[in-house]
Amino acid sequence: MAQEVRGVIAPGKNEPVRVETIVVPDPGPGEAVVRVQACGVCHTDLHYKQGGINDDFPFLLGHEAAGVVESVGDGVTDVAPGDFVILNWRAVCGKCRACLRGRPWYCFDTHNAKQRMTLTDGTELSPALGIGAFAEKTLVAAGQCTKVDPAVSPAVAGLLGCGVMAGIGAAINTGGVGRGDSVAVIGCGGVGDAAIAGAYLAGAAKVIAVDIDDRKLETARTMGATHTVNSRSSDPVEAIRELTGGFGADVVIEAVGRPETYRQAFYARDLAGTVVLVGVPTPEMKLELPLLDVFGRGGSLKSSWYGDCLPSRDFPLLIDLHLQGRLPLDKFVTETIQLDEVEKAFERMHQGDVLRSVVVL
Ligand SMILES: NC(=O)c1ccc[n+]([C@@H]2O[C@H](COP(=O)([O-])OP(=O)(O)OC[C@H]3O[C@@H](n4cnc5c(N)ncnc54)[C@H](O)[C@@H]3O)[C@@H](O)[C@H]2O)c1
Ligand SMILES: [Zn+2]
Ligand SMILES: [Zn+2]
């Protein structure tokens, strides 16, 4: 029997989001229905609402979530009703060219639920990142559920489902930050701060946080930043070079998603250093760089989708580190809110007032 639950939809481009009744089908083969306990508000949800991702309105928003598996469809063996899980948007297929080469974190054919959730009039919803978890329950592919230690609070666990994993992974997986490295992170929202926490965890000797908002820089220090730079009042490239003996950082992580901050990242890295772009640009943005600088500075320019994470490998590990007191995931939760407060949370995110607002159910 399909169930009716409450969920937050984005009805059309730039229209305010609202709570609607959502119809959640019973799980089909390979699918699971999850009772959502918490779901963080990510900048990508706002991108969806603004039409910056695609035009498949109406969207069922929310994708940084944790909850308990309620029911599973035929053939599901990895998770069972009652399991505490974090939802992921990288349910690897095991068959694409990346998976077959043993690099499943690049999987090019990830799974989502085959059935669609709908409004009560039958209108099909597009779940954000194939998840749609600003809802009391959601339907996903079973592979989108990763079991973790239930001792962790759901509000904290859910954040690993997107932004925090993207940031930690940008540093550790994509950037390959290691002991003794110098790292700079441009943009200290949830994603950038997670990159800072990741760099700290990996043993970086210097972690330089760059933002235009002093409040963000203060928080960045509590995540492990050793130095901070306000790029409104000083040139971040100069500042990063000064803090690194005149050379630039080994790894620079761009967590804003704009051409000007990417350019800063490009010039703030040392020769043969690495730039990691984890911020998501919009379609009209363009970048112009002297090709000779791209060549002459060597190193690598990488993008990081979801922190090149492998949920089955990374989620349980990071939750364990958190429970041992080695990764302050709880600091990312600025406030907990209700389903009908998502629009307000977007506003607060826009004002820079929060790292993460988390809907708890
Ligand atoms: N690659 C991925 O897999 C992935 C996953 C999740 C989110 N993201 C993207 O990461 C980006 C950051 O997400 P978030 O949730 O942390 O957003 P956020 O809005 O919480 O943080 C953005 C931060 O950048 C700062 N900022 C803005 N303009 C700046 C500038 N010119 N110079 C320096 N700092 C500046 C803001 O003050 C803020 O602290 C977004 O583009 C989001 O879509 C990427
Ligand atoms: Zn694959
Ligand atoms: Zn996200």
UniProtKB/TrEMBL annotation:
Residues 12-361 form the Enoyl reductase (ER) domain. The lineage of its organism: Bacteria, Bacillati, Actinomycetota, Actinomycetes, Kitasatosporales. This is S-(Hydroxymethyl)mycothiol dehydrogenase. Its cofactor is Zn(2+). Belongs to the zinc-containing alcohol dehydrogenase family. It comes from the Bacteria. Keywords: Metal-binding, Oxidoreductase, Zinc. It comes from Streptomyces similanensis. It holds the Pfam family ADH_zinc_N.
